[in-house]
Amino acid sequence: MRIYLLPISTRRTLLYCQKIDAPASQKQTWGDWVQSKAARTWADWEKKEKGWQKKVVNYGNYAFRRIPYEEWGLKSVPPLSQRRKEVELNGSEKVEVVYPKSLLAMDKIPKILHTLATEREALHRKRLMLCFVGMPLTIPVGILPVIPNLPFFYLCYRAWSHYRALAGGKHIQFLLQKNLLTLTPSPIVDAVYANQKQPLASTPQLTTTTKAGPDSEDFKIFDPSNTEVPNPDGETMLLSQANGIKMTQALDLPQLEVELERAIWQVETAVKKSNEEASGDNPSQDMPKPDEAKSQEDKKSQ
């Protein structure tokens, strides 16, 4: 597998794991089969023009976009099975960490990975337990004959999501403890950042509050060759949506596009909200709800 560290702002970095194609002889796990089945079902529902399936997809996509990009990133890391552990310890599978050397110093990479793997661990455990507690409470909804028990399935999904994030974090911690990572600076990634047009959104103050997270010294991202660090006390965006697309094209990773789009949107929203609060303005609505978005599209078409 291959891990990418892509700075979104001067204080936040997206972690994404690319799964290298497995041998044809390797059997598909039960978890992979369930995930593939759910993805196919969701894709079929997205093709519906109307009906409750289409509404579920609209609200589902709206909710998915608000799941923190850090959680999505850890979920992209496969759980550490016994077979995978043996393969990685034997050195028969190389685990690369691809990063831009113009923004991230090599000696900081292990600390950044450790922080990303552990900073939300307690949160995921707590919410995993809350999902398990809430599941039995949704059983009465299943009595309704019209639609399936959506609250129950949502809690199941969130429980699985938190479990996978925890498992992904544990896998990264294992790789760090056993020194199994190969750090690989990428000229391709550096070139995309170098071609990013300025200025990008920024804030004069911090927009994150987790003490062990991106506000720590290890997460302050800057160009080592540039003595003039832009906005050192606040947070500055490093990627726009347009350059996020260029990044996926340059790396030939189309599956990365939705991850980058979500992460950039979330960080941009946080920066915008911080600026509005600092200026005393009322926070603007960051994204219309599904029904509101549809009504806006209808008005434009009229």
Automatic annotation (TrEMBL):
<keyword id="KW-1133">Transmembrane helix</keyword>
<dbReference type="Pfam" id="PF10173">
    <property type="entry name" value="Mit_KHE1"/>
</dbReference>
<feature type="transmembrane region" description="Helical">
    <location>
        <begin position="128"/>
        <end position="147"/>
    </location>
</feature>
<dbReference type="GO" id="GO:0005743">
    <property type="term" value="C:mitochondrial inner membrane"/>
</dbReference>
<keyword id="KW-0472">Membrane</keyword>
<keyword id="KW-0812">Transmembrane</keyword>
<feature type="region of interest" description="Disordered">
    <location>
        <begin position="271"/>
        <end position="302"/>
    </location>
</feature>
<dbReference type="GO" id="GO:0006813">
    <property type="term" value="P:potassium ion transport"/>
</dbReference>
<feature type="compositionally biased region" description="Basic and acidic residues">
    <location>
        <begin position="288"/>
        <end position="302"/>
    </location>
</feature>
<protein>
    <submittedName>
        <fullName>Mitochondrial K+-H+ exchange-related-domain-containing protein</fullName>
    </submittedName>
</protein>
<dbReference type="InterPro" id="IPR018786">
    <property type="entry name" value="Mit_KHE1"/>
</dbReference>
<dbReference type="GO" id="GO:1902600">
    <property type="term" value="P:proton transmembrane transport"/>
</dbReference>
